[in-house]
Amino acid sequence: MRKVRILVVLPILKNPALEEVTRREIEQIRDENLEVSLVSLEQGPASIESEFDDRIASPWVLEKVKEAEVNGFDAVFLDCMGDIALNAAKEIVRIPVIGPCQATMAMASMLGDRFSVITILENVVPLFWRKAREYGFIQNLASVRSVEVPVLELDTKRELVKEKLVEESKIAIKEDGADVIILGCTGMVGMAKDVQEVVGVPVIDPVPVSIKLAKLMAELRLIHSSKAYPKPPSKLRKFPGMSELLLEKI
Fold first, then answer.
1. Is the pLDDT of residue 94 over 70?
2. pLDDT tens digit string along 99-124?
3. Which CATH number belongs to the domain containing residue 41 in this structure?
4. Owning domain of residue 45
5. What's the mean pLDDT in 118-136?
6. Same structural domain for residues 58 and 78?
7. Whether pTM exceeds 0.70
8. Section 138-162 average pLDDT
9. The sheet that has 180-183: what strands, in order across it?
10. Tally of domains in the chain
11. How far apart are CA 246 and CA 250, in angstroms?
12. Element (H, E) at 106
């Protein structure tokens, strides 16, 4: 069987610590039929913690997605719970593109009746309510809570983050009626198992779930519908520093 090649796009400026922990966790799920490569952005924000960061990152994410298709990758995983440029990415390529927010909400809806998202900061809480409405899971979303640790501090405060994840998850289960927990930042990669052992309900790590889903879709040759995500019309487009590969040769 031919290996499935997946490109993981970290939609932020290069962060060696985050890249390292992501690679380490990916290695835990890699098999002989899976090849995973990881890239970060040369231009964009240092982290994604707002809609503004999303917009700054999106053009460069789309360029990486298009390059992935041209370079023969079978699928792309957008490594941020904001699902950065997900819909636009589906318009410009004919390989599966996975956003972890959409993927984990779908998975959580199969594991229980109501899920809660435990994310980084209070200011990103509204994003998850909007995403739940967009994806059709608003009736399943029990609550969105935060640990109040920014993305760039997740690696240096991992034990504190785990403690806060446990604390907020317990509240979500007891007070909000959640029966499944989603880790609301891909920078929390590798923490789900420890949290699940304490809180006693399924805890979803968006990174392995998304990569495995990308692999499955590639193997089954399932691609997003061109009716739902039609190819953008051809026209002149200009964006400083961006290659013609994306702007004029979609």
1. yes
2. 999 999 999 999 999 999 999 999 99
3. 3.40.50.12500
4. 4-99+208-247
5. 97
6. yes
7. yes
8. 95
9. 141-146, 115-119, 180-183, 203-204
10. 2
11. 6
12. helix 100-111
